[in-house]
Amino acid sequence: MISNIGVPGLIIILIIALIVFGPGKLPQIGQAVGETLKEFKRSTKELTGDEDEQS
After folding, report:
1. Considering only CA atoms, which of 40, 39, 42, 35 is closest in space to residue 50?
2. pLDDT band, residue 52 (cuts 50/70/90)
3. Which stretch of DSSP H or E encloses residue 23?
4. Band of the pLDDT at 40, cuts 50, 70, 90?
């Protein structure tokens, strides 16, 4: 579903986010999202690594 957004849809989403949150909050929101994704990837690597060691 998300892969069907495309460039125009992404631009619209960014404009709406800019209007809703304002230019001052967007860097903080982006940083929080990035840290969350990094933590999620690290956690999934640990889970898949644990399964490999047990097998």
Report:
1. 42
2. low
3. none
4. very high
Higher pLDDT pick, 49 / 12: 12
3-class secondary-structure state, position 22? coil
Burial of residue 17 (number of CB atoms within 10 Å: 0-12, 13-18, 19+): middle
In degrees, rounded to 5, the angle at the alpha carbon of residue 13 between the alpha carbons of residues 22 and 29 is 45
CA 16 – CA 22 distance, rounded (Å) = 10
> How far is Cα 45 from Cα 50, in angstroms, rounded to an integer?
8
Structure tokens at 12: 């619209």
State the DSSP code for 3.
Answer: G
